[in-house]
Amino acid sequence: MINIALLFLAYFFMEFVAWSNHKYVMHGFLWRWHKDHHVNDQKKVALEDMQFSGFEKNDYFFLVYAIPAILLMIIGFYFGYFSLVFIAIGITLYGFTYFLVHDIIIHQRIRIPFLRKNHNLYTKAIINAHFAHHRPKSADDFKNFGLLIFPLRFFKK
């Protein structure tokens, strides 16, 4: 039971890690990796018309998140510390969620027809919050660095 709790704690903690890394690392000293993710921001292009060149330097952050999870899994299995394996699974599940929501649903880097339309209230709010960060109308919009947790005002748009 403790291992399942660790899995969920790791998953939810990763939202804080993603938020803080987005704010302080991606928009900080590793902006050179992240800036190509913002290349479409100044263009007033509809989501369906955005062009992606395939790999972005921003995709390096996948490794930044994956390597610790892989190491935790290897150490956990090798030494029999299965709590570490469950933490690694939580991190990995968050990474999968991030990829699904951010790259497929929001930015549509992989176009999957049934994930492009018919969004529920929460998914629409996620999309609104993320695009407010990319195309801010105010300083508060740009300060939205989270993915799954964001200000309630985005539910109203």
Give me a quick take on this structure.
The protein is an all-alpha fold. It has one domain.
Outline, from the CA principal axes? globular
Low-confidence stretches: none
Number of domains: 1
By helix and strand content, what is the structural category?
mainly alpha
The biggest sheet, with number of strands, parallel, antiparallel or mixed sense and barrel status, is: none
The tally of strands reads 0
The proportion of strand residues reads under 5%
Tell me which oligomeric state these chains represent.
Answer: single chain
Number of helices: 6
Mean pLDDT: 88
The N- to C-terminal Cα distance equals: 40 Å
Rg (CA only): 17 Å
SSE order in H/E notation? HHHHHH
Helical proportion, percent range: 55-70%
Verbal overview:
The chain has helices spanning 2-29, 31-34, 60-79, 82-106, 121-134, 139-142. It starts with a helix and ends in a 15-residue tail after the last helix. The chain is mainly alpha-helical.
Which features would summarize this protein structure in a list?
single chain; 157 residues; mainly alpha; 6 helices
Which helices and strands occur, and which strands form pairs?
Elements: H1 2-29, H2 31-34, H3 60-79, H4 82-106, H5 121-134, H6 139-142
Helix pairs in contact: 1-4, 3-4
